[in-house]
Amino acid sequence: MTGPRSRACRVWLWTGLLALAPAAVLGAPDRPAAELVVEHARVWTVDALRPEVQAFAVSGGRIIAVGSDREIDLWRGPTTRYLDAGGRRVMPGFNDAHVHFSDGGEALAAVQLNDATSSAEFVRRIAEYARRIPPGQWIRHGNWDETKWTPAVLPTRELIDAVTPDNPVAIDRYDGHLVLLNSKALALAGITAATPDPPGGVIVRDAHGAPTGALKDAAQALVERVIPAPTPAERRAALERAFREAASLGVTSVQDMANPPLDYGDLAALAQLVDEGRTTARVYLAPLISGVDDQAKLGVRRAFGGPWLRIGAVKGYADGSLGSATAYFFEPFVDQPENRGLLSDAMQPLARMRAYLARADETGLQVCIHAIGDAAISTVLDLYGEVVAAGGPRDRRWRIEHAQHMAARDFERFAALGVIASVQPYHAIDDGRWAEARIGHDRAARTYAFRSFRDHGVRLAFGTDWPVAPLDPMATLYAATTRATLDGRHPEGWFPEQKLSIQEAIEAYTLGSAYAEFQEHEKGSITPGKLADFVLLSEDALAVPAADLRRVRVLRTFVGGVEVYRDARVH
């Protein structure tokens, strides 16, 4: 993958050699001047060898020196750009280890339902949106959350049919594991009372057996096959919106986890944007594991590509979600004693997933499996263990995405197998409003168990699951360090023993996420030789009270030493 920004790779050799020399020597007149110098800063490097400095120098898109203002001033030349941080906090750019990037871009332009606090407001917003779009156009996304309504009951097609007579509707619950259809969409999908539930999915039905319009997990495929795929222009527009949003929040790298159905359109659109030099964040794309042969046949291996776009990972699903009552548990849900969740269709039979994993392993691909319930996590660890036993130990860095509800015995297995916990702290303060009513206190005590993971030596990588949760890293840092639920009922923290310090949380969001994509030698810290991806903050995130982290803003975002975002209030 080539493009205008690939020139950064060509200077790697000399910048790496320069970085090894003492700053005083590098101040000699015959050394090249830096392209950018950042001084008068409070730089949190996330580098254990030198965690805090005042300044650093950049050339060729990479950090070439760190140190005091006096040391780094030696790098200035007649053409050097200069950033006076004014004593503000500078730190590495955030690396979101789990997003749905184009979905997030699409959702920014779609009907907004997540903060609707009643079914009436939910319907009003859909009606207003339907009036603005052409007849026949699908109404998608939405990210609604019925737990914010009173009563908290799943919506049905009858609720929205009257306000959407001319448009098919397939709007997502915010967790992405349940979609609500209106009657027009049900008809287009051919879903009737006689339609059987597919493996790994549920068609929610009323007392008479008729579909209510709600489809859970694998049942969503019944409607996905009739929804038109986005055009290349629509896909590009969505990605451009997503890049702008990421830049405004200081997100300089994303790890894009595919959703069903299998589709490589995003890869093509991203490659085009890279060629045009229009990307402002680095992307690691993980297509669905059902297409493992596509990369394997090409000989693609983990983290294959260039600094702006990489592939070499595959994403799979073991179960559903807690909110949709499809996460797979050993014991039934407290509020649904007949239900303990669903294994995904890719896990039925287990031999199917076992074959996918074996194929990925023999070709050197990284594996990222979504698993939320304790039984799903345990089953994935069993399968990973079988692969390790068959193929022998090596640096696989296989991951479990979400890893929300742990069985007590599985922390040690996580560590022993070297599995990465790719977690999303914001979910803890969101689900914490209602999770105990669904799974009880004992299981909730091992939910979003960030401290327990660290204490067992498990690597953490932080992300958001955007658009399921906000892309804003400050909301994630707030969640990890306070665990204060969104309803205000746990101001000291929901299971506060699982909190992390701000330093630990930042590390998981930068160097931890870089490790999770085999890029810890390229990014994740402000270290000589690494890519110059960094942010300037409005306040010192390491010094403000954790409860105030949400007010901290990103003032400026740099990727490869180039400014890609500046707050309008910064002159």
Can you describe what's shown?
This protein has 571 residues and is an alpha/beta fold. It has a domain at 110-224: Diaminopimelate Epimerase, Chain A, domain 1, CATH 3.10.310. The strands form five sheets. The protein has a six-stranded mixed beta sheet with strand order 3-2-7-23-24-25, covered by helices on one side. A hairpin with a 4-residue loop joins strand 10 and strand 11 (178-181). Helix 10 (232-248) crosses helix 11 (265-275) and helix 14 (374-391) packs parallel to helix 15 (410-417). The radius of gyration is 24 Å and the shape is globular.
Salient structural properties:
six-stranded mixed β-sheet, alpha/beta, Diaminopimelate Epimerase, Chain A, domain 1, single chain, 31% helix, 571 residues, 21 helices, disordered N terminus
Poorly predicted residue ranges: 1-29
Q: Please identify the oligomeric state.
A: single chain
| Helical proportion, percent range | 25-40%
Structural class: alpha/beta
What does the largest sheet look like?
6 strands, mixed
Query: How much β-strand is present in the residues?
Result: 15-25%
- Report the average pLDDT across residues: 94
At the first level of CATH, the class of the domain at 110-224 is Alpha Beta
Number of distinct beta strands: 25
- Total number of helices: 21
CATH architecture tag of the domain at 110-224 = Roll
Radius of gyration: 24 Å
CATH topology of the domain at 110-224: Diaminopimelate Epimerase, Chain A, domain 1
Q: What is the overall silhouette?
A: globular
Strand order of the largest sheet: 3-2-7-23-24-25
Distance between the amino and carboxyl termini = 35 Å
